[in-house]
Amino acid sequence: MRDRPYNVLFLCTGNSARSIMAEALLNRLGGGRFQAYSAGSFPTGRVNPHAHPILRSLGFDPDDFRSKSWDEFARPDAPQLDFIFTVCDSAAGEVCPIWPGQPITAHWGIPDPAAATGTDAQIALAFSEAARLLRNRISLLVELPVEKLDRLTLQARLREIGQNADHPA
After folding, report:
1. Is the dihedral of CA 157, 163, 85, 21 positive or negative?
2. Which pTM value belongs to this model?
3. Among 40, 105, 117, 130, which is 20 to 30 Å from 10 by CA?
4. What is the pLDDT of residues 6-17, one digit of tens each?
5. Structural contact between residues 136 and 165, judged by C-beta atoms closer than 8 angstroms
6. Catalytic: which of 96, 124, 125, 144?
7. How far apart are CA 109 and CA 30, in angstroms?
């Protein structure tokens, strides 16, 4: 038995939408087994207001979230990370800080809803779709018997989730 939840960091460039929604989703769906965080390589400094309805639907106050730099999680006093997921293609290709403890990493690319244009309804649809894609992946994560899998198998399973979560078998 672990004496603490698995610490998970979701990374994106701006940390305003996808990574924030992923943090909320895992904290809601993780059943106490996971503690999620989010950060960005170039944080915008604000949570995108179009993410607020999704955060509220998960039972969170959007004011409880903030856009922050991934540097906060490379400090000595930061939580020891077990998993890091990049949710945007930009962050996946960037040089990341050295993470203490060698967390398992995977790329779970999601189209950026913050880049959506059009009517309010079209933008809301882009945010809902991003949340749906994240929920698919996170639901598969929380179903994994993490404590029973060796590191290489777990790494492979997490990468498969990122590649195949939205494609029928």
Report:
1. negative
2. 0.92
3. 117
4. 999 999 989 999
5. yes
6. 96
7. 20
Task: Tell whether 165 is covered by a domain.
Answer: no
Would 168 be classed as within a structural domain?
A: no
Q: Report d(CA 35, CA 58) in Å as an integer.
A: 15
Query: Among positive and negative, which fits the CA dihedral 152, 157, 162, 168?
Result: positive
- Concerning whether 96 is annotated as a catalytic residue, the answer is yes
Each residue's pLDDT tens digit, 67-97:
999 999 988 899 999 999 999 865 555 555 6
The whole domain housing 127 covers 6-159
Q: Is 135 noted as a catalytic residue in this protein?
A: no
Residue 117 lies in a domain: yes
Per the annotation, the verdict on 119 as an active-site residue is no
Asked if residue 167 belongs to a domain, the reply is no
Q: Tokens 């996946």 identify what position?
A: 92
